Amino acid sequence: MSRLLVLFVTAFVDMVGVTMIIPLLPFYATKYGASAATVGVIVSAFSLAQLLMAPAWGRVSDRRGRRPVIVVGLLVTALGYAIFALAGSVTALLVARLVQGTGGGTIGVVQAYVADVSAPEDRTRSLGWLTAVTSLGAVLGPAIGSVLVRIGGQPLAGWGAAGFVLLVAAFGWVYLRESRAGIETTGEHPIPARSALTRVTTHWREPAPRLIWTYAIGIGAFYGVIPLVPLLLGRRFGITEETIGYFIMYLAGVGVLMRSFALGPLVRRLGEPRLARFGVLSLAAGLGLTAVPDGWPVLAAGFTLMPVGTACLFPAVTSLLSQSVRQSERGTWLGIQQTYGGITRVAFPILGGLAIDLSGVGAPFAGAAALMVLVALPLTKGILHPDGATERRREGAPS
Q1: Contact partners, residue 158, CB within 8 Å, separation at least 6
Q2: Which residue in 102, 46, 94, 32 sits closest to 74, CA to CA?
Q3: What is the pLDDT along the chain (399 residues), one digit of tens a residue?
Q4: CB atoms within 10 A of CB 396
Q5: What do you get for the CA distance between the two ends of the chain, in Å?
Q6: Same fold? 1-176, 192-399
Q7: Other CB atoms closer than 10 Å to residue 142's CB: what's the count?
Q8: Which of 145, 263, 312, 356 makes the best surface tag, with the fewest CB within 10 Å?
Q9: DSSP letter for each residue of 213-264
Q10: pTM of the complete model beyond 0.90
């Protein structure tokens, strides 16, 4: 628990730094002459760099340990914020975003650290706490960034974010203990990251790939439509930029409450396999209800079920994945999971926008709900039985 607390502090402050900068990017990009499309490229550059680097970070952490990779990732992120502080052009902002995403590719390593130090029965709850503390950081970060901009403009915001991350990097180096110190090597050759990437598609019926596809589809279904929520609320209910923040806060708040207080009891009552399927169905129901143009009560139900579903689905699937692969490859596979999740997070908003143009504002939500029921739910069938993932790990199944 002491190691988890140190990691949670590290992840919390890191997220504060990330979200200090994100809301400022469009303003400075347009100031330097960027079009709306270019702004989109700059914003998405983080996710692109993150998904490209995540497998490599995970592979290195399996070989060299989690602690040094987490600290180096933080230092790379701080460099990205320093570039932002000095940026005076669109190109410099793009470079800053790419560097920040490179450092942010260590998210799979952070998840692997949690899996390393948590007992299997506590792993889902611990992963839920991790996302809860990062969500709290995401709430505070934009406010801090706005204060710094008001005082000292773009440079102070950039240097402030870099300072936050450098402090937490030093904190992590001093207090974060290596999670893999007690893991013995088995003499087996770990799977190369490139082979693991292709195995997810070529051997999709195996437990690890099916869990990764479930995660990726769920991530895309939720985070792919969330950027489109303002369009739906604006057209149906007249919500503007002055009030949209309250709806996003509600989504985030339900997720934090679920992960902080309800996830542990649900894991003990249902177990991770059933909890994952419950998460799929809850997310699908929330997306489907949001698509229905039937007034505030239906919208409220949809906005409640969506974060309930994600709070159950993502920690459970990540925990099961960590149990279905060898300990020596855990970082690699969790990095691969982030890569496939990153692909859907980039692709789904584009597809959702096209769906709105073709079929109306509710179309992407209905399509995402159908995808969860028709694809994600069948993927969880069979492999997510009690102790199934643990049995496969003991048998040395393909990973």
Answers
A1: 21, 81, 82, 83, 84, 85, 86, 87
A2: 102
A3: 678 888 888 888 888 888 788 778 877 888 898 886 787 788 778 888 888 898 889 989 988 899 999 999 999 999 999 999 999 999 999 999 999 999 988 888 998 899 888 888 888 989 999 988 888 887 788 778 888 888 998 999 999 999 989 999 999 999 888 887 655 454 556 677 778 889 999 999 899 999 999 999 999 999 878 878 888 888 899 887 667 767 877 888 888 899 889 998 999 999 899 999 999 999 999 999 999 988 899 999 999 999 999 999 999 999 999 888 888 888 889 889 988 998 888 788 878 888 888 898 899 999 999 999 999 999 998 765 444 444 344 334 443
A4: 10
A5: 28
A6: yes
A7: 17
A8: 356
A9: HHHHHHHHHHHTTGGGHHHHHHHHH---TTTHHHHHHHHHHHHHHIIIIIHH
A10: no
Q: What would the DSSP string read from start to end of 92-157?
A: HHHHHHHHHHHHHTTHHHHHHHHHHHS-GGGHHHHHHHHHHHHHHHHHHHHHHHHHHHHHHHHHHH
Neighbours of 370 (CB within 10 A): 15
**What does the domain layout of the chain look like in residue ranges?**
1-176, 192-399
How far is the C-alpha of 367 from the C-alpha of 371, rounded, in Å?
6
* Angle between the N-to-C axes of helices 207-223 and 263-291, in degrees from 0 to 180, rounded to the nearest 10: 50
Measured CA to CA, the distance from residue 156 to residue 135 in angstroms comes to 24
Cβ neighbours around 354 below 10 Å, total: 12
The DSSP secondary structure of 260-284, one letter per residue, reads IIIHHHHHHHHHHHHHHHHHHHHHH
- Residue 241 CB-half CA count within 13 A: 0
DSSP assignment of 9-63: HHHHHHHHHHHHHGGGHHHHHHHTT--HHHHHHHHHHHHHHHHHHHHHHHHHHHH
Q: Which of 203, 226, 199, 176 is nearest to 352 (CA)?
A: 226
Q: At 350, list the tokens.
A: 């584009």
Classify domain 1-176 at the CATH topology level: Growth Hormone; Chain: A; (1.20.1250)
Q: Go through the chain and tell me how many residues it has.
A: 399
What's the Cα-to-Cα distance from 388 to each of 272, 320, 325, 391, rounded to whole Å? 11, 9, 12, 5
The structure tokens listed for 312 are: 């159950």
d(CA 60, CA 103): 14
* 141, 19 contact by CB (below 8 A): yes
Class of domain 192-399: mainly alpha
